[in-house]
Design goal:
Layout (H helix, E strand, L loop, with lengths): L1 H6 L4 H8 L5 H7 L5 H10 L6 H8 L4 E2 L3 H6 L1 H6 L4 E2 L10 E2 L2 H23 L3 E5 L9 E2 L3 E2 L4 H20 L8 H17 L4 E2 L2 H6 L1 E6 L5 E8 L25 H19 L3 H19 L3 H17 L28 H16 L7 H7 L2 H13 L13 H13 L21 H11 L2 H6 L5 H12 L12 H11 L8 H4 L1
Parallel strand pairs: 4-8
Antiparallel strand pairs: 1-3, 2-3, 5-9, 6-7, 8-9
Helix pairs in contact: 3-5, 9-10, 14-16, 14-17, 19-21
């Protein structure tokens, strides 16, 4: 009955066109998603040769926000409608919750809710400021500090130990169970929440940095909140020597003692005084000879060269603006978040952020202590830091306006040498791939990853349904698009995939 009423809301002009045989019933029902006659007719006029129902629905909702959008999920239907927002629903197809029509209102509600969370974080943790943002403000230009490890209190240590012991005991007891009893499932949730509450207490920010610094409260791509802490504005910086860290990735650590600072100042003043007694040309001449001597001697000490190269990279990566390196190696970093939406929220993105933060926490606060820090590291740790710094500069992103075939070939060789297996970092989902390619590409992926028979069964599906079914089919196959494949590894996977029985995948495609 409701569907008939909705069809009655279609523009009389379009109804007549339907009766004249120039519109199909499926196209007419797609136009009925809105009762705005002017909009219906405007969309009809925009249609070219491609008049399928999905195109019509897309045009009618292009200025709206689907209920699956992160903003809609974060605010919720109830809060949005209570604020006066309206939702456009399609009674003829599965619309996954409809479309939020008032985008301005939705954005206002998002920022307001993020703002309340930001206020709660500031009050609970003591930061000088907190700012809500829809996306992470990457050009903030602020210095960042990191927390340092601390010992849990006796009470918290006992509570964490007891919680972890019970969690492990339940895990071992129910590891072979197909389904958990409701009370056990609820208890697992309680234990996980308690562990999540206690674990962050193992690290703490310096009280002075909290008093001067702040945090960004951001909306994740899955509709959850992310808090990025430890940023200090320039006007809140304490007076410091030029050798102290002044960049985005500055770190927590021990501050150099007053005696060390005074000795350093005396040495610098003495050097400056000596320089002023000589002409600029002579200073350049002498230091050029010294540089040549450094080059000759350094070339005979590979281990020291590793320290020097690591120092140059780390000084620029973790102490931006400090200008403390002498080796002319410059890390050129590419912000991958600008190329792949949501990449920082992936498992790999979080793993990289954790690894970088772990190194940042170990760095001495004063960059003048960096060389001693590197020299004191054991060989394996030093090489691990060197590899981390070098890895940060890797750029294998293909851009439409760039032609770097030799660089891409090098990237392929690098992938082979490090045995890159992207199945550990990426999987084909509607959002990551399947919803962004043609139906032919989807079927090709299913054919390669599962079987030709499975692809044939999906041939008559609509694009959205096909993408969702393909996601289920490909979930356990390890299929990757060609751009993500490492040749040697893919050949091995392909050989094992050919032996799989495809019968187990039939249900998802039917």
């Amino acid at each position: 009955m409701r569907q008939r009423l909705r069809l009655g809301a279609v523009s009389p002009r379009l109804v007549q066109i339907y009766r004249d045989g120039e519109l199909t019933l499926e196209q007419l029902t797609a136009l009925a998603i809105t009762d705005d006659h002017a909009r219906q007719e405007a969309v009809y006029e925009r249609l070219s040769y491609n008049r399928d129902a999905s195109t019509i629905r897309r045009l009618l909702t292009e200025t709206h926000v689907p209920a699956t959008d992160r903003r809609a999920r974060f605010v919720g239907v109830e809060a949005y409608t209570e604020a006066g927002g309206t939702i456009l629903r399609d009674l003829f197809t599965e619309d996954r919750g409809g479309y939020f029509e008032d985008v301005a209102l939705l954005d206002l509600l998002v920022i307001a809710k993020l703002g309340r969370t930001a206020d709660a974080v500031r009050e609970a943790e003591g930061w000088k400021w907190t700012e809500p943002h829809l996306d992470f403000p990457r050009a903030h230009g602020l210095r960042r500090t990191y927390p340092h490890p601390v010992e849990l209190s006796t009470e918290d240590q006992a509570a964490l130990g007891a919680t972890q012991t019970e969690f492990d005991r339940l895990t071992e007891h129910y590891q072979s169970a197909d389904e958990l009893p409701d009370d056990v499932d609820a208890r697992f949730g309680e234990l996980e929440a308690e562990i999540e509450r206690l674990e962050p207490k193992r690290q703490a920010y310096d009280a002075d940095d909290i008093a001067r610094g702040g945090a960004f409260v951001i909306l994740n791509h899955d509709g959850t909140v992310r808090v990025e802490r430890g940023f200090i504005r320039r006007e809140d910086e304490q007076p410091q020597s030029q050798s102290q860290p002044a960049g985005e990735a500055s770190v927590m650590g021990e501050v150099a003692g007053a005696d060390d600072t005074s000795v350093q100042d005396e040495q610098e003043n003495a050097a400056d005084k000596d320089d002023r007694s000589l002409s600029d040309i002579l200073v350049r001449d002498l230091t050029a000879h010294r540089t040549l001597g450094l080059r000759l001697n350094l070339s005979e000490h590979p281990e020291v060269a590793i320290i020097a190269a690591t120092h140059a990279l780390a000084a620029q990566i973790f102490y931006v603006g400090a200008d403390a390196h002498v080796v002319g190696i410059q890390p050129i970093r590419t912000d991958l978040a600008g190329h792949a939406d949501g990449i920082e929220d992936t498992k790999a993105g979080k793993a990289w952020a954790d690894r970088h933060a772990n190194w940042a926490r170990q760095m001495p606060r004063d960059v003048t202590g960096l060389w001693a820090f590197l020299a004191e590291l054991d060989h394996d740790s030093r090489m691990a830091l060197f590899a981390h710094c070098v890895a940060l500069t890797v750029n294998a992103v293909k851009l439409p306006w760039e032609s770097r075939p030799r660089a891409m070939t090098t990237a392929d060789r690098l992938a082979e040498v490090v045995s890159l297996d992207m199945t550990g970092y990426w999987r084909p989902t509607v959002r990551s791939y399947l919803g962004r390619v043609t139906k032919a590409r989807i079927l090709e992926a299913v054919c390669e990853g599962v079987s030709g028979e499975a692809a044939e069964r999906m041939g008559d599906m609509k694009k959205v349904d096909m993408a969702e079914a393909a996601e289920q089919l490909l979930a356990a196959t390890g299929w990757l698009p060609p751009l993500l494949r490492t040749v040697e590894l893919h050949e091995q996977v392909g050989a094992s995939t050919d032996t799989q029985d495809s019968e187990g995948y039939s249900q998802a495609a039917e």
